[in-house]
Task: inverse folding
DNA sequence: AATGAATGAGAATTCATTCAT
DNA sequence: GATGAATGAATTCTCATTCAT
């Protein structure tokens, strides 16, 4: 932990370069040079260029998922948990812009299709997000704070799409709204879209009613 | 118009290969061979491999934007126009899966950052989407059918993010909900999120009141 | 002669482009476009890209040689003829900078080695210069105005080298002396180097005699 | 020093092939094959085909300039130094025909115009020759052994032109005089052209004295 | 004479990976 | 663990030339 290990130096440099120039436009020679190590050292630690990428990816997603899962467990009620989750998402990305840009820019094209062990496993890790969202939605339905008008699974899929799409557009500069504002906008609209019908919660009977 | 020109043959083959294997994993040699033309012909018509990509992209986005703009102009009221727009979006993509997959998988990494005239122009074209959404939202506010709880521009940005994120996840198989179902889910939630407050539309007075 | 024929338009454009960018860096497509003709037209008139080059070369060298030969015949005495020749050389090049730059920059590398008819013939044309210089030197020896200290042929070779080398360095900007000044410098030194020994013209013995 | 490094093998092969066939007609594949290395190794060491050329050029010119500068410093008097310089020039080229042919045939067309750092720097190196000649001329003027009838700078420019032009014509076979004879011819004429006026060396006052 | 779409044989360059030290 | 010279397969792009119209 004390020694600024070569391993970490490589990951830091690679994160930055991947984010700045994209995975394909970053050469292993550059990474090695900027990290102050020999090119061979990259291979000692990570086995391949893909290995470097997947390590960055895994470490980040794991951290994110752990944070998200903790929040989902803590919430007092479904609506609150969803709010927390949305806020956490945008805060976390705000603080990890570089590393997330890597994923945003390069993941799907390169490793999204291959099915060799590690990259498949990495992708799976991300899918846990849908599970977490489903969980929170179910909780909300049960405690009456959320009233999805479509099946849980589809609603969770929608929420993932909202989080991903808005984050991506903002980070790539396609829209002007910054992440911090986006957080409030997304939270506001999601809660409204999932809000109980006007009459009061008791009147709704579809599913999860007494 | 009748002759299946070499130009079109190239674009068709390239669309398919890019969608199947990704831009980087498709070689110009393959495109030429499958299109039954010489490799030089690719360069005669499109100047570069990027040129082929951008041509596919431009033609598709242009078609999409024209369709979207027409709908936005036709709608009877704001909420109706928004519904139409959302349906059109998912229908259009359903019918142009291949070509859109190309964009989904490869666009940002490759050309999103470069600023050489053509790719910059291409990206601009895409930004018209935010304008259209803003227009429809404004219309809805004026005719009282939509009640955004956040500024128009941020709301439009959110809608773009929703459309993009959900479409992407579905097309890449990250979520299981198919585009057709997604269309209804997105439409339902968006309308609800933008629905007038329970009290009645007449209470709102900001703009467009009597 | 009245119609600005396509043929001439092509030669003019090609001269300029070859001079500006070099033969290898000028494409037939560029020549055709700037001359306002189709690429095929180039081949109708000149058969090949080399053909364009050799035509420019031949026309220029022929003009130059005709001028040089006329002067050599006219001179009142050898020294005078040599002076005229030197002045003519620099004046002619000053007036035909572009076309000469073509030769300066590209001739040897491309066609200097091949021995297929036309390019060999073209090169021969240039060799007439050594003959003219030899002629003038002989004339000067006979009329007592020039006293070469080395065989005529070697002296002529030297003069050619002087003319070529100084012209080249000046036109390519390797030295700062402009052609006009160079003309006087070369003339002055050549006449001095070939001047009769101090004692008088009749006495001419080897060189540097007491 | 003992190991015939791959780097040197590449340079040797490239020198020979460039001289034999010209730069443009020599492929990197050929160089690699004949040098017994992989094509990538060329790029590992020299970065580009141009890089190989410029390395050959630099090493040769540097060697030449060092030799010339040493001679210029050693001479007992100006005329003697000039003689030494001329002899050195032709001897050096005689011994480095191959490498010089490369420069003679290809340099100007290819890199003479581009201004990307390295090639510009290379050309500069060559310009030192004018400085050396100026130095020697100045020395000769001061010690009374040389009497240029034109400004030093122009005279130096002329000398460079003579050396270049005669060498080139001889090496390319445009004239029949071999380098060894040329050496004496050039030396003889240059000294005569720069010789003191008949009146006597002691009187030397600037030039153009009454 | 003129056209210009089509050609296709090259050529330079890239770069992740290996392996002897 | 660390090195970095060497690799070589793979790929995009060039451009003079042809020929059917």
Result:
């Amino acid at each position: 932990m004390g020694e600024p290990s070569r391993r970490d130096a490589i990951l830091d440099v690679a994160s930055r370069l991947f984010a700045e120039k994209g995975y394909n436009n970053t050469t292993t020679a550059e990474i090695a040079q900027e990290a102050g190590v020999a090119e061979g050292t990259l291979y000692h630690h990570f086995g391949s260029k893909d290995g470097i990428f997947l390590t960055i990816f895994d470490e980040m997603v794991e951290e994110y998922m752990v944070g998200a899962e903790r929040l989902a467990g803590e919430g007092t009620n479904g609506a609150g948990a969803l709010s927390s989750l949305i806020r956490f998402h945008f805060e976390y990305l705000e603080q990890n812009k570089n590393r997330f840009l890597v994923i945003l820019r390069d993941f799907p094209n390169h490793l999204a299709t291959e099915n060799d062990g590690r990259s498949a496993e990495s992708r799976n890790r991300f899918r846990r997000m849908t599970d977490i969202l489903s969980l929170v939605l179910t909780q909300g339905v049960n405690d009456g704070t959320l009233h999805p008008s479509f099946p849980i699974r589809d609603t969770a899929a929608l929420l993932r799409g909202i989080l991903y799409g808005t984050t991506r557009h903002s980070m790539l500069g396609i829209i002007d709204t910054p992440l911090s504002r986006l957080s409030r906008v997304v939270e506001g609209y999601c809660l409204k879209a999932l809000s109980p019908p006007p009459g009061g919660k008791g009147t709704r009977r579809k599913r999860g009613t007494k």
